[in-house]
Amino acid sequence: MFGGFLGAGILKKAADKGLVDIRVHDLREQAEGKHRQVDDRPFGGGEGMVLMPGPVCKAVEAVRETAETPVVLLSPLGRMFTVDMAQAWAGCRQVILICGRYEGVDERVGLHLATVEVSIGDYVLTGGEPADMVVIDAVARFVPGVVGKAGSVAHDSFAEGLLDCPHYTRPRVFRGHGVPEVLLSGDHARIERWRRRQALAKTLALRPDLLIGDRPLSAEDRVLLDEIRKERKES
Ligand SMILES: C[S@@+](CC[C@H](N)C(=O)[O-])C[C@H]1O[C@@H](n2cnc3c(N)ncnc32)[C@H](O)[C@@H]1O
């Protein structure tokens, strides 16, 4: 599953440049017995199989470089994955992601091995691989040099606690719908101000919860927000 994901696009380029080094480890390499079994039936009965703690622990212990390495168990029960986690892990020398399958991973892995359990949303995937890919991709974007223009990451949604501003490209008129005039003006200061205002307006309309987070807004942002709120009341 990881071949296509790691073998193309920005992540492949980042790996080729030595900016990231993403390794996939097969739990079966740490399994014992002829069948290299990694899962077993749940104690207490019931449907499905559970990943055994032994191979998972051995696999982590075989690659963990220091006791500080975050060991992340992907699980629907985990804390919601956020941009803050992505930024923090991008600064780590190593991050280990444990990917579950079937009914999940033996509870003792979460209790005694993982340093954090993380969910990518309130839904259940058949396996942790797509969740791992989400985390890898989001973390890699914060590794300096991975995304061409560092500025674009800094202005992306959530990075500054706001949603992104709208983007337009050619044609100037598409099916009767034009482009905001300011973007064609060539006045960079005006364009920057418009973008910031749009980002604030989008955030206020779509994700007001972000504005009551712990990221302080600048005085200029507060003025813009007041203007936007006033306009919304009037309309
Ligand atoms: C079928 S799920 C297990 C679901 C589990 N029995 C439950 O109801 O919470 C198998 C694996 O997929 C991964 N997974 C599924 N949904 C996920 C999510 N929303 N976030 C992160 N990982 C998820 C986890 O690694 C999990 O162990």
Describe it.
The protein has 235 residues and is mainly alpha-helical. It has 2 domains: 2-140, Alpha/beta knot (3-Layer(aba) Sandwich), CATH 3.40.1280; 157-234, Trp Operon Repressor, Chain A (Orthogonal Bundle), CATH 1.10.1270.20. It contains 10 helices and 5 strands, in the order ααββαβαβαβααααα. The strands form 2 sheets. Strands 4-3-5 form a 3-stranded parallel beta sheet, with helices on one face. Strands 1-2 form a two-stranded antiparallel ribbon. The longest helix has 19 residues, at 188-206. The termini are far apart. The model has no long low-confidence stretch (mean pLDDT 96). Bound molecules: S-adenosylmethionine. S-adenosylmethionine binds at residues 74-77, 99-101, 103-105, 119-121, 123-128, 131.
Q: Mind sketching the topology for me?
A:
Elements: H1 2-6, H2 9-16, E1 39-40, E2 50-51, H3 53-63, E3 71-80, H4 83-90, E4 96-98, H5 107-112, E5 116-119, H6 129-140, H7 150-155, H8 188-206, H9 208-211, H10 219-234
Parallel strand pairs: 3-4, 3-5
Antiparallel strand pairs: 1-2
Helix pairs in contact: 4-6, 8-10
This protein binds S-adenosylmethionine.
For the secondary structure, the number of strands is 5
Overall geometry? elongated
Bound molecules: S-adenosylmethionine
User: Biggest sheet, strands in spatial order?
Assistant: 4-3-5
Biggest beta sheet attributes: 3 strands, parallel
Helices, by number, come to 10
Helix content: 40-55%
Looking at the overall shape, the CATH architecture of the largest domain is 3-Layer(aba) Sandwich
Q: Indicate the proportion of strand residues.
A: 5-15%
Low-confidence parts lasting 5 or more residues at pLDDT below 50? Answer: none
- Terminal Cα span: 50 Å
The residue-averaged pLDDT reads 96
CATH level 4 superfamily of the largest domain:
SPOUT methyltransferase, trefoil knot domain
**Measured on Cα atoms, how large is the radius of gyration?**
23 Å
| Structural domain tally | 2
**Derived structural class:** mainly alpha
